[in-house]
Amino acid sequence: MTTHDHPGAPAGAAHGTPSELGFSMPAEFAPHDACWMLWPQRPDTWRYGAKPAQQAFIEVATAIAESETVFVGVNDDQYENARIQLPEQVRVVELSSNDAWMRDVGPTFLTHPDGRLAMVDWEFNAWGGLDGGLYFPWDKDRRIRTKIAEMLGVERFAVPVMLEGGAIHVDGEGTLITTEECLLNANRNPDLTRAQMEQVLRDTLGVEKVIWLPRGCHLDETDGHVDNLCCFVAPGEVALTWCDDPDDSQHAISREALAVLEAAVDARGRRLKVHKLPQPGPLHIAEDEASGIDRLRHSHPRRPGDRMAGSYVNFYIGNAVVVMPLLDPQRDGQAREILQALFPTRRVVGVAAREILLGGGNIHCITQQQPRCR
C-alpha cells in the first residue's frame, strides 16, 4: 500500500495529485467489484439496541449481494451476531466503527486506466465536529479508510480536507454535483473558498466541472448532503427529490435546485435531463420510535414529532439491482416505477427502510461501492 499526503489544495504535491497521476472517480452506475457496509449497533442512534435497524441492513446487504461482493464491517462484540444473521455470501469482517455510515466514513474509490484501484482518505469530523456534529468521538470512524486500504493493498491518497462521501456525486465523465450548504459549511473547511474547494475536487477526483446546488433536503442533519437530494443516474441525467406542496419547505429547495440544473451544462457540454422523484411523506418520528434510544450529551437528539429528511433519491445502484428505500405506502409504487424506467437493465428492489431513516440517513448513506478494475 502506498500513501500520499496532499495539502488542502493538493496541486503540486510531491508525488502528484490523483488527477495528475491519471486517477479519477467512476460513476456509481459503472461496474463494481464490491460494496462496503458497516453493522449498526450505536444505542444513541438506533433504537432498541439497533435490532430493528440490523434487520433493515441485512435486507440491503442481501439485495446488493445478488450481483456483487458485500463486505460488512463489524465491531468485535457484534461479530458473532452479525455473522449468524447475515447470509453466507456476505463477507463479515472485523472493522471497528463509531457508527454505521459507510458512505461518509469509508473511502472514495478511484480507478486508473491501467487497471489500478486507489482511494481517497478525506478528513472526517462526524458532520461538523463539536459545531453541529452528530456524535463524539469519531476516532474509530477516522481509521476505517486506512484499514480498508491495508486490507485491499491499494494506494491511499490522504487529503486533509473535511468531506463525506454523501456530499458528492459524479457522472464518471468529468462532472460532479454537490451542495454549497455542505462543502462550504464553516464547520467543515472554514479556510477554503469555493474556488479552492473546486480545485481540491478537480485534483483529487479527476473531475472538470462542478455543479453547485445551494442546499440539500429540508432538515437533513448532514448539513445538506447531495445524495439525499440529487444524483446522477446516467451521463447527462440526474434524479431530483421533488415536492409539489408550496407550503412544504422542501418545495422551494427542489425548485431552487431545478433552476440550477436546468441552466447547467456538464463537462461534455450537455444540458442535463432532470427526472423528478416524489418526496415521501413528509415523515415524522412517532412517539414509540423516539423511545428506546440512549440520550447522550454529544449525540443528535431524536424526539417525537421531529421531521425526517426522507428521500427516494437515497438509493444504491448495484451491478444488477437498484436498492431503493420503501418509506411511504402512498408514494413507494410511483417512485419504484420511475426508478425502474431509469434503470431498465437492473431490477429495482425495495427495502423497508424507515428504521434506517430513523437513524438519520438511508440506503445510499450506509453503502459505498468499490469500482471494478481491469
Automatic annotation (TrEMBL):
GO molecular function, one term: agmatine deiminase activity
Chain spans, region Disordered: 1-22
EC main group: hydrolase
Protein's name according to its UniProt entry: Putative agmatine deiminase
Family affiliation: Belongs to the agmatine deiminase family.
A GO BP entry: putrescine biosynthetic process
Catalytic reaction(s) noted: agmatine + H2O = N-carbamoylputrescine + NH4(+)
Gene behind the chain: aguA
Organism name: Halomonas stenophila
PANTHER family associated with the record: AGMATINE DEIMINASE-RELATED (PTHR31377:SF0)
Regions of compositional bias (Low complexity) in chain numbering: 8-18
Record: active site: C365 (amidino-cysteine intermediate)
Pfam families: PAD_porph
Organism domain of life: Bacteria
Record EC number: 3.5.3.12
The entry's keywords: Hydrolase
InterPro entries: Agmatine_deiminase, Peptidyl-Arg-deiminase_porph
